[in-house]
Structure formats: C-alpha cells, structure tokens
Design a protein that fits this description.
- By secondary structure, the chain is mainly alpha-helical.
- 60% of the residues lie in helices and 6% in strands.
- Helix 1 crosses helix 6, helix 2 runs antiparallel to helix 3 and helix 6 runs antiparallel to helix 8.
- The two termini are 31 Å apart.
Length: 142
C-alpha cells in the first residue's frame, strides 16, 4: 500500500495548528447535535433519477474539519481493507491514530463510487469513534 506511513500521518497531525483542532471540536459538537446526518433524495421522476444523499451541513463540516488537519494523503484505499477490518469503527480505539485518518479517506472515496457510504458510517457510530481516537491522541500529546 503506497501512501504516508503512520509516523508521517502523526507528524502531520502534530503540525496542525491548534485552531484546526478547535474547529474539529466545534464540528464534532455540531455533528452530535444534528440528526439526521442526511436524507435520501431522488429515485423517482421521469426520467428516473438515481437516489442520492443530501448530507446535513454538520456532517459535511465534520469531514472538512478532519481533512483540514492536513494528515490525509492519497493511497490505495480500495486495497487497504480497513473498511472491513474496522466494522462499525471497532478496533480503531486501539489502532494507530493513522488508521483513523485512513478510514476517513477510504469512506469519503468509497462514497464517490457507492452513494450513501458516508451516510452509513455516520449513522453506525464510526465517525464518533474516529473523532474520539483523534481527540485522545491529541490530548495525550498536549
């Protein structure tokens, strides 16, 4: 798997300015307060429109805040296997923090090919686990 090593991802996270970590905390609060995280639209009409998810602003803001930490980079997410390795986010708490960043990247990329992937991971608690892991890592370093 090409891409950044765990250490390189951690270095990027460590270099993220405090205001970006604060923005992530704010995005988390908004995400936790906003339900649902999106709604399915389309799927009807003439011609028939494929269904798509209209994501809630806080859900999109959360992904943006994670990416703003600057720790993600292109990698072969489809060969990574983490989407199956960490079902419902299980195991991410004990995994290197880099796995949480890879997980977000894989989810966002997978959503481009299979509409609703992000929606499923928002609703199953994976993003909360990812955020908890990022916050715990950041707090340990402070």
């Amino acid at each position: 798997m090409e891409g950044l090593t765990d250490a390189e991802i951690e270095d990027r996270l460590a270099a993220a300015p405090l205001e970006r970590w604060a923005a992530l905390s704010g995005a988390r609060a908004a995400f936790d307060a906003e339900r649902p995280h999106g709604t399915w639209k389309g799927g009807t009409g003439d011609p028939i429109q494929m269904p798509w998810v209209d994501y809630a602003p806080a859900a999109e803001g959360l992904v943006t805040a994670i990416y703003a930490l600057g720790a993600s980079a292109p990698f072969d997410w489809s060969a990574w296997g983490g989407l199956n390795r960490y079902p419902h986010g299980e195991g991410l708490t004990e995994a290197p923090v880099a796995e949480s960043i890879r997980m977000v990247t894989a989810i966002v990329r997978a959503d481009r090919f299979s509409e609703g992937t992000k929606f499923a991971f928002f609703d199953d608690g994976t993003f909360e686990i990812i955020l908890d892991r990022l916050r715990h890592w950041h707090d340990e370093r402070a």
